[in-house]
Design goal:
It holds the Pfam family DDE_Tnp_Tn3. It contains two helices and no strands. The chain is mainly alpha-helical.
Length: 91
Amino acid sequence: MHRASCLHLLMAAIATWNAAYLQAAVGELRQRGEQIAEEYLPHITPLGWEHINLIGQYSFTNQSTYSLTNLRPLRLALMEGQVTDWIPSRE
C-alpha cells in the first residue's frame, strides 16, 4: 500500500513539474515569435517521464532546491534545433 502511495505522489510531482516547464517553454517560444495555437495546448500532456531517471541515486540538499516559481533554466539548445537526437523518427 505504501509503495502505491509513493508512486502516486511521485507521478503527481512529475506532472506538476512538467506542467510548469511546459508553460515556461510555450512562453519562451511565443516570446521568440513562434505562433502556437491555443487549441493545441490542451493536447499537450505533462505526464511524460522519459527524461527522468527513475532508478538513479539522488542527493536532495538545500543548495539544489527549486520551486515552481523559481525554475531551472530551459534547455534552449533543444528549442533552437541544435539538438535533435531526442526526436523520434517518423519512418
